[in-house]
Amino acid sequence: MSNNFIELSSTLLYTAFFLYLIATVFFSFTIGSKRKSDGKAAKIGITLAIIGFLAQVSYFITRWMGSGHAPVSNLFEFMTFFGMAIVLGFIIIYFIYKLPVLGLFALPVALIIIAYASMFPTEVSPLIPSLQSHWLYIHVTTVSLAQGILTISFVAGLIYLIRQIDQTKLTRRSFSLEVILYSLILFVGFILASTLFSVMNYNVSFEQPTTGNNVVEVEYHMPAIASPNDSTLITKDVMNPWFETPEWMHGADAGRKLNTLIWSFIFGTGLYLLLFLVFRKRIGAVIQPLLKNARPDLLDEICYRAVAIGFPAFTLGGLIFAAIWAEEAWGRFWGWDPKEVWALITWFFYAAFLHLRLSRGWHGEKSAWLAAVGFAIIMFNLIVVNLVLAGLHSYA
Amino acid sequence: MKKIKCECGHVNPEGTVLCEACGKPIEGNQHIDGNDKKKLLNMRYDGTARRSQTYNKSIVDKIWSFFSSVKVGVWLIVIALVASAIGSIFPQEMYIPQNAVSRDPAIFYEERYGIFGLIFYQLGFHNLYSSWWYMILIALIGVSLVICSLDRFVPLFKALRKQRAKRHETFLSRQRLFSETETVSSEDWAALKEGLKKQRYKMTEEDGHLLAEKGRFSRWGPYVNHIGLIIILLAALLRTTPLFYMDEYVWIREGEQLVLPGTDQEYYIKNKDFIIDNHDPNDTRFKEAISKEGGEVPSNYQTDVIIYKAKQPEVTGAEPELEKIIEDDIRMNKPVKFDGYAVYQQGYQLNEFTSMSFKVHKTDDPDEKALGSFTIDLTSPKSEYKLENGFRVEINKYYPDYYLDDDGVPASETNYPRNPAFVMLVHPPNGEEPEISFLGIGKNIDATGENDYNVGITDFEMHDVSGLRIRRDYSLPYFMVGAVIFMIGVIQGMYWQHRRIWIRPKDGGILLAAHTNKNWHGVKKDIEKVIAGTKVKMVSDQQELDE
Ligand code: HEM
User: Fold this and answer.
1) d(CA A347, CA A316)
2) What pLDDT was estimated at residue A250?
3) ipTM surpassing 0.90
4) What is the DSSP secondary-structure string of B106-144?
């Protein structure tokens, strides 16, 4: 019975994914037109996005029914939820501002996040004692919703930057923008590498000594460029590792993570270069002419408004609910654990954003850059802190 | 104080930029808000006179000006942000892992992270968040927040109360949203008012001039949220005192009864049982995940406890009388709470040895018939045990948690009886020289190979140990109040906006201007609705995007 729910839930997630994809295509049709929301393509796009969102909500509910707990308990579930929150943030902002071009960027970001999520173990896992609390889903869902809305601020800022920055010369600004776009492509690189090697069913194993006289077996699913520190290869007829993961990279599975990172860079960079060869221009310059009709003042307004909506929600979910839960579970509402520190940093950052905008008049481009930095901080907290800086929170 | 009288007759305090009553720019003060270089008026604080911008002579003025600058505030926030990030690069001292080679920070950081670890430690970053300079930084943010808020709140509050509907022409034309309509019929005027009412604007009229306003209360949002922050900072200060905050940790064996530390001998706790449950590995839902985790995923850590309250005895020194007040289980996410204290499940240690029983027999006796037996209580091992028939066993060395160190010398890894081992001297009854035996789990070594008597383990008992955290935190309600006030403040300031629309009659037509503190899109929508069906022109957005 419960397994049927889980199967149904993954079908629903696929459905949502494809609906978002098709919706993106429809939003791309709106690009040339001067009209705003009344275009047919935009209407179809937003309808598909909403149906996709509902499908993903159903995924969430059925997975919850199947596993017996809210599916926000491991990295896969959490990231997928974050993707859903981005779509919700987009839908809300769309109905306030009716700006179809937002969908053309917001949905792909959500798609990348969801695809990235599904590269992590997707089976339902039982809850360990520390996660057995209602606060798990109260806290995690509010934080993600807030981060989803804050992501819309980044999306609006990104469109603003692509539209406004002078692409005729290579400047610090056009270069930085290109770095942002390249980073997004790196995620695609990660997805490509993971998919390719998992289709090939690639496997290498190493033996790595640990404390005492024990040896653990470490398995890679990608060809080993960086082997685990101090290990010996035990699989035959595979590519020899090029170098060893340095000793100071300690976290669990440091070698595998480094190796995956290298492959993501290889595929992502390859993809970027390919695009560059095809267009013979910076990606920013390729997209820029398509955005002629987007109104910068509206984009700027959205960039700010999304922060205005997301900031209180983030405070509530990421700091207040987090503290209440930490108090219940560990008996201390604040403990300077890396995850907590990075929640605080995120909060400080958006507080600075608001103050700069309000009192120092950082509008337009400056504000758009800040929104991009804010998103980088959110992603850092989701990915790097989870995977690298070990702490009490690191699940996955 | 130099007062400034405006042509409308209102007397403004020194330093005013826009007349409090009619909004006319006051000559000579336009540089204060930067209006001299721009077409649009800076409406941030409605052009009120702020102390920080007006007085800059005495040292107090200078300090006030310094802290009331948002630039300074933002810098402080950014520095705190960067510092916090640095502190998260390596684990803080309290998070040095249990299994580290050395938990001494002087060794740990360098050993594990090399030169960067050494620098991290030497700069004191391993205790960054409780360092004096981090505290000062946070305190400075607090000071800045208070001064900054006072500097603006008071004049803004007064100005918004005194504002008049009748505004100067330049005030209107230099607003971001502005339009001029040449002729406006009286029907259109009526429609405008009707529309504004429908949009729930509060209207004041003065000589045919109109001010429509809504959401003014949202202007106080930032000040309210800053008050919340101040309360939180004060609560954090309170919490550093033992009066408000107590935090203790105790290890307690199954069956053991202890005074709860930190409670002034007032409460006792007994550990009845410690339990770990695992998820059922055959649960079809979780099968795959559990097998990936190696077959065991815990589902519950639990200590069954009894808590007693001690009635202080009349005679000092006598045993207190214990009254049972709670019998309950403590689990993760389910602390036990009583009289302001809370006890949390925090750690455990499985399978420590409680006691071990031994017997002595002749080495060459195939039946190993006991010549004598004894039991070592590992919670309080004695140095010597006298057996029934005259044997004496001296405990020469005791390793509670035996291992062979790098040089092959026996040592104890911890002080907990997890893998006990002994060097025993067996004194036979006849007064002969003692024989040396080495005994441990699965080890029985006769050092000389010539022992006449052998010692063997016959039985042992084990227990689990539970790690409990005891806390009392009277500062929590203050944090809660601060957090609630903060939330009210941010929601008030972010989800509502202060919108104002001014209409000024001019030669049979009108000037229409509008200002909002945020969400310009929203106020434009309002105006569109208000003027729908009239000949009044839509406002144009005169914003100068500065790129
Ligand atoms: C981390 C600490 C702080 C937080 C979370 C915080 C939060 C906020 C928020 C949410 C707003 C409203 C912003 C908006 O409406 O867009 C605000 C406004 C403001 N804050 Fe802070 N603040 C902090 C520290 C400071 C500091 C240190 C200063 C002093 C320099 C300061 C001065 C101001 C001022 C002047 C305003 C604008 C009030 C207005 O113009 O209506 N804040 N603050």
Assistant:
1) 11
2) 58
3) no
4) HHHHHHHHHHHHHHHHHTTGGGGGGSHHHHHHHHHHHHH
For the residues of B429-459, what is the DSSP string, one character each?
TT-PPPEEEEEETTEEEESSS--SEEEEEEE
Residue B10 confidence (pLDDT): 84
**Strand runs labelled E in B132-291:** 177-181, 202-206, 209-214, 245-253, 257-259, 267-278
**Highest mean predicted confidence (pLDDT) among A8-17, A77-86, B230-239, B460-469:** A77-86
Instruction: Select from B46, B77, B145, B217 the residue to mutate for testing ligand 1; criterion: most ligand atoms less than 8 Å from CB.
Output: B145
Instruction: Tell me how long chain A is.
Output: 396
Distance CA A153, CA A156 (A): 5
Q: Rounded distance, CA B257 to CA B268, Å?
A: 7
Fill in the DSSP letter of residue A130.
G
Alpha carbon distance B188, B165 (integer Å): 19
CA atoms within 13 A on the CB side of B376: 25
Is the pLDDT score of A213 beyond 70? no
Beta-carbon count within 10 A of B539 CB: 21
**Residue-wise pLDDT tens digits, B497-519:** 999 999 888 888 888 899 998 88
According to the model, what pLDDT value does residue A364 have?
Answer: 83
Phi, then psi, of B30 in degrees rounded to 5? -70, -25
Mean pLDDT, range B23-31, rounded to an integer: 83
User: Phi and psi (nearest 5°) for A339?
Assistant: -65, -40
Which residues' Cβ are closer than 6 Å to ligand 1?
Answer: A 348, 351, 354-355, 358-359; B 44, 70, 73, 76-77, 141, 144-145, 148, 152, 222, 225-226, 229, 490, 493
Strands B245-253 and B257-259: unpaired
- At residue A214, does pLDDT exceed 80? no
- pLDDT given at position A220: 82
A37 has pLDDT over 80: no
Alpha carbons B515 and B20: distance in angstroms, whole number: 16
What is the pLDDT at residue A34? Answer: 58
**Helix H or strand E encompassing A304:** helix A296-314
Q: Residue B249: beta bridge partners? A: B469
Q: Check CB contact under 8 Å for A355 and B77.
A: yes
Ligand 1 geometric centre to CA of A293 (Å): 34
A46-61 pLDDT, tens digit each: 999 999 999 999 999 9
The C-alpha atoms of residue A339 and residue A394 are separated, in whole angstroms, by 8
The predicted pLDDT at position B43 comes to 83
Tell me the CA distances in angstroms from A25 to A30, A103, A273, A291, one per residue in order: 9, 10, 24, 15
